[in-house]
């Protein structure tokens, strides 16, 4: 039996994986392009494979194809790998899967695909002397010369396509639907974080201003597009780290349900759409959006590997959304409001890192792709709780500011926010310590029932403080005394 590699034994394409693995090395990409233009596709594959950056052991495999290979081997048959991938990668795959007896692959001059592969296999085994597992129209000629033909697919409802030219046995390794996979990859639920753009609008009591609400909504859409673009790029750049992560390995790019080059193209399209909308909204907002994109990209590439710098960057990524909301509406952020939110976001960023360290179960080894080890968990805990308490203290000072007095007829009611905020921050850290924090802390807070109740109480307190009747009531109570 002969098995194809890209899209058959493996869910993905090793050429695309090679390109992605070298994205941080532009000189290698440039050399590969030169090789393609001067010597052809096989030479390009050889140039990329020579870097050895593709983690073959981590590439997701098609379970149905793997089962067939092992069954054939168990019955005393031979299994061969025939692929257009470079021989260096093909040999690494053969080492990973012991059921493979020998390899046919591209050698730097011959690109072993389609007719070239069919010719090589026929010369080796004869017409009809082999069974073949393939996945695309490039395999049609090989299927025609095979004894039994198999179609490898990740589509649970797939049937033999008409272009195959013959009956095929389907080997399905069913994954999520394309729509569901892209929905997960774009992290649609993470758009909840972009509701922070509405915070200046709410804090300034401008939520009845139709123009301001419409502008903020447009800004929300632009940030959501840009955030999804960055998520795609981040998952492409960190695909190997995600594949060894307990939870992130199920992300569609890491799991092989979405091709990394397709994700890269999607990232570019979304970024262009976000910037176009950003400039339509206004130059100031567009510059903030560009700043967000640059900071996020810097975080993905290297800042998240630097101790404490990563936490400050995360806090700034939360904060920049509030700044964007202020810019798009023309609202000026007060000093104390900025201080409260900044320290609160620092605490949330520390929660995110603490949760990751806590999940390491006390291991002293370094977290993959991070600047921390398990030994840092106590320092992170102290810094995070201190930041949260600092935000509570600043909130108390903010309540006494002139800005609050102008907006709220009964600011004394807002003092009740202090114990409620303390309760929420403490609850967040206790849950993180119990290992119950498995998501971005902002998303967790927007989904956690207790956080939602606390948020509703805080909102109610602000509403009560903003009502003139509350001030009159307190005035009457004071006069009675």
Biggest pleated sheet = 6 strands, parallel
User: Considering the protein shown, what is the CATH homologous superfamily of the largest domain?
Assistant: HAD superfamily/HAD-like
Which outline best applies?
elongated
Low-confidence stretches: none
User: Total strand count, please?
Assistant: 6
The separation of the N and C termini measures 95 Å
Strand order of the largest sheet: 3-2-1-4-5-6
CATH topology of the largest domain: Rossmann fold
How many whole angstroms does the radius of gyration measure? 28 Å
**Second-tier CATH architecture of the largest domain:** 3-Layer(aba) Sandwich
Arithmetic mean pLDDT: 89
Tally of structural domains: 3
Class from helix and strand fractions: mainly alpha
| Percentage of β-strand residues | 5-15%
Helix coverage percent = 55-70%
């Amino acid at each position: 039996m002969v098995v194809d590699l890209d899209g058959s034994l493996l869910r993905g394409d090793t050429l695309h994986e090679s390109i992605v693995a070298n994205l941080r090395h532009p000189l290698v990409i440039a050399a590969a392009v030169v090789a393609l233009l001067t010597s052809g596709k096989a030479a390009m594959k050889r140039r990329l494979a020579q870097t050895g950056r593709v983690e073959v052991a981590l590439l997701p495999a098609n379970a149905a194809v793997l089962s067939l290979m092992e069954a054939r081997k168990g019955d005393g048959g031979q299994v061969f790998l025939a692929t257009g991938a470079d021989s260096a990668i093909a040999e690494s795959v053969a080492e990973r899967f012991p059921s493979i007896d020998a390899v046919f692959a591209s050698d730097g001059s011959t690109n072993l695909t389609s007719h070239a592969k069919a010719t090589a296999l026929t010369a080796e085994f004869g017409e009809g002397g082999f069974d073949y597992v393939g996945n695309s129209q490039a395999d049609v000629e090989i299927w025609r010369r095979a004894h039994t033909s198999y179609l490898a697919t990740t589509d649970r409802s797939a049937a033999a396509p008409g272009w195959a030219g013959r009956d095929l046995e389907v080997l399905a390794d069913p994954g999520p639907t394309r729509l569901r996979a892209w929905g997960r990859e774009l992290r649609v639920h993470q758009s909840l974080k972009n509701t922070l753009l509405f915070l200046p609008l709410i804090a300034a009591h401008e939520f009845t201003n139709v123009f301001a609400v419409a502008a903020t909504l447009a800004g929300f859409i632009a940030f959501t597009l840009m955030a999804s673009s960055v998520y795609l790029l981040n998952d492409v750049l960190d695909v190997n780290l995600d594949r060894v992560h307990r939870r992130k390995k199920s992300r569609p790019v890491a799991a092989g349900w979405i091709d990394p080059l397709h994700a890269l193209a999607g990232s570019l399209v979304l970024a262009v759409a976000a910037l176009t909308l950003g400039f339509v909204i206004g130059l100031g907002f567009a510059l903030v959006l560009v700043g967000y994109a640059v900071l996020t990209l810097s975080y993905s590439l290297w800042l998240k590997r630097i101790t404490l710098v990563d936490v400050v960057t995360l806090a700034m990524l939360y904060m920049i959304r509030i700044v964007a909301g202020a810019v798009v509406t023309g609202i000026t952020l007060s000093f104390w409001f900025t201080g409260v939110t900044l320290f609160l976001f620092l605490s949330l960023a520390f929660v995110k890192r603490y949760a990751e360290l806590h999940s390491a179960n006390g291991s002293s080894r370094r977290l993959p792709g991070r600047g921390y080890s398990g030994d840092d968990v106590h320092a992170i805990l102290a810094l995070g709780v201190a930041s949260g308490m600092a935000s509570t203290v600043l909130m108390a000072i903010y309540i006494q500011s002139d800005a609050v007095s102008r907006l709220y007829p009964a600011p004394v009611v807002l003092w009740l926010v202090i114990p409620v905020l303390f309760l929420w921050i403490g609850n967040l850290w206790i849950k993180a310590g119990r290992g119950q924090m498995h998501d971005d802390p902002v998303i967790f807070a927007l989904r956690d029932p207790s956080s939602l109740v606390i948020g509703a109480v805080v909102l109610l307190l602000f509403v009560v403080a903003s009502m003139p009747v509350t001030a009159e009531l307190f005035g009457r109570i004071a006069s009675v005394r």
